[in-house]
Design brief:
Elements: H1 2-23, E1 26-34, H2 37-42, E2 47-53, E3 59-66, E4 72-77, H3 87-92, E5 100-104, H4 110-117, E6 121-128, E7 137-145, E8 152-166
C-alpha cells in the first residue's frame, strides 16, 4: 500500500510539473538575416520565427514570417516518416535530424513559401536547427514533388541572428505588419 501511495504521489507531482511547464511557456520571436547565397535568394530581408519555449525545455515553432514583409506561413511539427520511404536518409543522406522537423502548412502564404524554398514541390519540410539567442541558424529544406515516392533536398540555408522579442504572457500573437492580400 505504501508503494502505491508513493507511486500516486510521483504521478501527481509529474502532472503538476507538466501543467506548470505548459503554463510557463514563453512566447518569443527571433529574427535572422540571410547569411548564405541560398538564404538571400529566398529572402533579402530575413526570416522571423514565432515560437514557444517551455519551462521544462523544448521549443515549438508556430510560424515563420518574412521579416519586414507580409509573407508568413504556419509550421507544424512533423517527422521524417511523413517524407515518404527513407525519410531524411533518402533526402539528406543521413539518419535523424540536426534540429526540429516542421512541415510548412499549405494555407495562407504557405504554398507560396513551399514553391519559393523548393520549386516544384507539393509539400516541404524545414529541418530547423536549435533557436538560441545570439546564435546563427541553419535550416535544410526538403520537398516532395507530386508523384515522387520520397522527399529530396531543396536547399541549405544559413542565417545570422539579428534580434529577439518576447510577447507578454497571455497576449495574442502579434498581428501581421501588412494585411494579407493587399498591396
Amino acid at each position: 500500500m505504501g508503494r502505491l501511495k508513493t507511486g500516486l504521489r510521483g504521478v501527481a507531482l509529474i502532472a503538476l510539473m507538466a501543467t506548470a511547464g505548459a503554463a510557463a511557456a514563453d512566447e518569443q520571436i527571433y529574427s535572422y538575416e540571410p547569411a548564405s547565397a541560398s538564404a538571400r535568394l529566398l529572402t533579402q530581408t530575413g526570416l522571423s520565427f514565432e515560437f514557444e519555449r517551455h519551462g521544462l525545455g523544448g521549443t515549438r515553432i508556430h510560424r515563420i514570417v518574412q521579416t519586414g514583409e507580409r509573407g508568413s506561413a504556419a509550421l507544424k511539427p512533423s517527422s521524417d516518416k511523413d517524407m515518404g520511404p527513407g525519410g531524411l536518409k533518402a533526402a539528406l543522406g543521413r539518419q535523424g535530424p540536426v534540429g526540429g522537423i516542421y512541415e510548412i502548412a499549405p494555407d495562407g502564404d504557405g504554398q507560396a513559401f513551399v514553391g519559393a524554398v523548393c520549386p516544384g514541390a507539393q509539400r516541404a519540410w524545414l529541418i530547423i536547427g536549435p533557436l538560441k539567442r545570439f546564435r546563427d541558424l541553419e535550416i535544410q529544406a526538403v520537398g516532395l514533388n507530386e508523384g515522387a515516392r520520397s522527399a529530396h533536398r531543396c536547399a541549405d540555408l544559413a542565417f545570422t541572428f539579428y534580434n529577439e522579442w518576447s510577447m507578454p504572457p497571455g497576449s495574442p500573437p502579434p498581428r501581421a505588419r501588412f494585411p494579407r492580400n493587399l498591396p
